[in-house]
Design brief:
- With 497 residues, the chain is an all-alpha fold.
- Helix 7 crosses helix 19 and helix 9 packs antiparallel against helix 11.
- 69% of the residues lie in helices and 0% in strands.
- The radius of gyration is 23 Å and the shape is globular.
- The two termini are 41 Å apart.
Length: 497
């Protein structure tokens, strides 16, 4: 049966209208929804620390892992979207119940003779400068899962419109998600910089640019593939989000070379946070004192620049967010803040530093938006302005702090490991296999999520689907994504893009 072109066109317009002209929701509600992730981490960690529930990792363990780290997050943006506090309380009740249940007794490993212990310790690899910390895996894995859920859920009526991307002014969960994706990329990007500093090397600008372009090329190719597929398939698109041709993959792709250039500016401003603030403030001043804001919001689309003005100019805001994330990575990734600190002192020092920076970002955000004591600016993800950058940085700093608190309370032994093998064993014990899998191939899974989202939208009239069917589709979709992620991890496959 032939498809009526008029019907197809009108349905496409309906889908575009469904995600257009939205004003978002409150920052406090978004914070409550985001809080589900560290609360879920607490439940998982209590199960593991008190009952060794995920060791060994059985099919039942996988099911509970999936229900907690995927299912609970899915509920927070669908069935419990109007009651995130209730969901958090229910999860905290589960955590409290599991905690008061008598802990499972663990069989101690047989003690080795002294001579065998000395041989064992001498053969073990000493710890390096950087560490893969459990709370970072939990933070990034949860962020990727929520992102994958939302990019499909937003096309269904069950997903609240206040969670979808705002048209121009305001805050929403998906606006936070986009910024968090960039912030977490910045955290990860600090690793090679820290390695260089530890080795006493400083790569010249030309080398940094070549390396950054190798990272950029696959992302830019993905951007062009998405552009061609959206235009070729006449897929519904929201032009005011990034522009006519621009998309998020282009934003991600152009970040590495610009970050490489900004690294040279560290000689003048010796702090990534300082660079982020400087860039954010300069960009905001230009928005307020020139016609740039009016051009981005209302200018005619006459050439390539004007057609993609949202994506091009918001890039500077995303670059500031990336640099803020990189500054956070410089703080949390090193094994110790100084060589003299170990164990409890080290954990306390990092905790205080993270809490301090969280307060700094929160204070700057409120100073930017407050009408009485600050500048009275409004958040705009469309322009990625200064208040948006500060909101994203503050929220992610607090989330990281929450995940770290779970870590140090329930798995403190990780931070006392003396060799690589022991640390790896403790890391595996303290992290969800599902979250490790998403973290390992995050960009590849995100790409697959985009492909599956397109497939669902082309085969299912999402605007006409009921509540139960929506939940079934989303669980099936996330089940497939998680199975692929865990499968790749199980077979030790890392896809680098």
């Amino acid at each position: 049966m032939a498809t009526n072109p008029t019907t197809t066109q009108s349905y496409k317009q309906l889908k575009e209208d469904f995600v257009s002209n939205l004003s978002g929701g409150s920052v406090s509600e978004i914070a409550q929804v985001c809080a589900v992730a560290p609360v879920v981490s607490l439940v998982w960690s209590v199960l593991q620390a008190r009952q060794s529930f995920f060791k060994p990792y059985t099919p039942l363990g996988y099911a509970i892992d999936f229900l907690l780290n995927v299912g609970a997050l899915l509920l927070s943006v669908t069935l419990y979207s109007s009651a995130p506090l209730l969901l958090n309380l229910l999860l905290l009740t589960v955590a409290a119940f599991v905690y008061i249940v008598p802990a499972q007794t663990r069989r101690k490993k047989p003690q080795l003779p002294p001579n065998a212990q000395s041989k064992k310790s001498s053969s073990e690899q000493p710890l390096g400068v950087l560490s893969t910390k459990p709370f970072l895996t939990s933070y990034r894995g949860n962020m990727l899962i929520v992102t994958c859920i939302c990019i499909l859920a937003v096309d269904f009526r069950l997903f609240p419109r206040r969670f979808a991307k705002v048209e121009t002014w305001g805050t929403s969960l998906m606006d936070m998600g986009v910024g968090s994706f960039v912030f977490s990329a910045g955290v990860v990007a600090s690793r090679p910089v820290l390695k260089e500093r530890a080795e006493g090397k400083a790569a010249p600008l030309s080398t940094r640019l070549k390396t950054s372009l190798r990272h950029s090329l696959p992302l830019l190719v993905l951007g062009f593939i998405r552009l061609l597929s959206v235009k070729g398939l006449d897929y519904a698109e929201h032009v005011t989000e990034y522009g006519v041709h621009w998309n998020f993959f282009f934003t991600l792709g152009f970040l590495p070379p610009f970050v490489a250039l900004f690294q040279s500016a560290l000689k003048v401003v010796p702090s990534y946070a300082g660079l982020a603030l400087l860039l954010g403030v300069v960009y905001q001043v230009l928005l307020e004192t020139t016609s740039l804001k009016a051009y981005i919001l209302t200018g005619p689309r006459m050439n390539l620049l004007s057609m993609n003005r949202e994506g091009i100019f918001s890039f500077f805001g995303y670059l500031a967010i990336f640099l803020a994330g990189q500054d956070t990575g410089m703080l949390v990734l090193p094994r110790s803040l100084s060589r003299s600190t170990r164990g409890t002192v080290q954990r306390r020092s990092l905790l205080l530093n993270m809490a301090g920076w969280s307060l700094v970002w929160i204070a700057l955000y409120f100073f930017a938006i407050d009408y009485k004591y600050g500048f009275g600016l409004s958040v705009s993800r469309r322009m990625a302005n200064l208040p948006y950058m500060l909101w994203v940085a503050a929220s992610n700093a607090v989330l990281l702090l929450a995940f770290y608190l779970v870590d140090v309370l329930l798995f403190p032994s990780f931070y006392s490991a003396q060799d690589v093998k022991t640390e790896k064993e403790l890391y595996d014990t303290a992290t969800s296999k599902v979250l490790r899998a998403y973290n390992r191939n995050g960009l590849a899974i995100f790409l697959l999520a985009n492909l599956l989202t397109g497939l669902v939208n082309m085969t299912v009239p999402t605007l006409d689907v009921g509540r139960v069917a929506t939940v079934v589709i989303l669980i099936t979709y996330m089940g497939a994504l998680t199975a692929v992620a865990v499968g790749l991890d199980e077979y030790n496959v890392t896809i680098k893009l």
